[in-house]
Amino acid sequence: MPWKEAERNPFLQGNFAPWLGEGRCDDLEVVGTIPPELNGTFYRNGPNSEFEPIGRYHWFDGDGMIHAVRLAAGRASYQNRWVESTGLLEERAKGRALFPGIFGMSADEMPSFKNTANTNIVAHAGRLLALMEGALPTRLDPATLATLGEYDFDGRLVPPMTAHPKMDPETGEMLFFGYSPFPPYLRYHVVDRAGTLLRSEEIDLAWPSMIHDFAITRDHVVFMLCPLVFSLEEIARRGSPFFWDDDRPTRLGVMPRAGGNADVRWFDAEPSYVFHPMNAYAESGRIEIDAPLFRRLDFMDNPDRQRSGSGERDGARLSRWTIDLAAGTVRTEQRDDGATEFPRIDERQLGRRHRFGYAAAGRRDDATTTAPLFSGIRRYDLERGTIETRWHGMGNGVSEPVFVPRSATAAEDDGFLLYFAYDRERDASDFLILDARNITREPVATVRLPHRVPYGFHGNWVAAA
Ligand SMILES: [Fe+2]
Question: Ligand 1 mean position to 332 CA, how many Å?
């Protein structure tokens, strides 16, 4: 990495450093056997700056790069390509970075913002969308990964759009929200199975915050408002757009899917921050939400502590919130002593009672500056209360495990976990396929990739049509 900033910034070192090339490789080396049931493409998004960043660089800032692994008839190919945002094209024209990141902005620079599209990649109604929470989605060509441009649902969507929309497994609807530091702080949207944006609703919020994700049940939407408060004054004072306010609770806003803003009921819970709920469901007058809870989000509050929030000490713990709708209370119960994040389930259970969950796990014994945030894969049986972990070697970071069912009618945990794992010795990454029921056994298949895939954010499996 020839960049000067890389010498002092851990997010530009080791396997956090961007991969400065694009390409495609067919018929990759496979150890084991790729299950013939897996016919489709695994897409994963992540930050990957093309130009040396200006100002203080954070992991959340890099240009989106898509890494796609295509599986068919037991064979695997790999392709990676940048999302060519308008901002990135402007930078290519100038030959240098033009946009500061979230911790590099001054208050009067707020409008100068790049839609990096770096956080997630989802398919809905035949459209493949790269997402980041501050802007419109970016539409991509599923076959070539070429950028087709920002997508606004035929002019109906007032941006931004969260990177974590929810696809209802029964109705086929895509539910999502967008948050803003300026009023209105929150909007909720419903897109029907065919991809038409049918409904947008402004939701009243007690304070502006960073709302990364939300939860749904069959009949409810649950918004999560945490004590991380947006503040223009703080940008000027400390360089972070957010501060952690110890005097505020975490508030869970429950809205009936058939209702609107006037029907939202807010429930106070102990202060915590949640990036990603694992799942939620409603049963017997209660809403159960499993989510990795950070007790405090210091690394967003203080730009000098960017690399905390990882590992055993400061990481999130999988917990269950139980909202008692009649009593108006929230009970919080920790379900795991270890640090995990990037929780996933069998998406066919989304909003319904789930028994199994999967996540990336942090380890306590790696204190190097380029240590991965996560180097294990966790499997939860939430009914039996058992937890299993597959650890990769020291320094070998893993990405979010994505569950793919063996078939449309397979049982909840009958399927595979797909993810990238960095191999520090080879300085390259593997694409792993685990049997979701036996995650500690030898992988079903290990696909050797031609180079490393930098640590990134979210991905999804799209079965071939
Ligand atoms: Fe996320």
Answer: 22
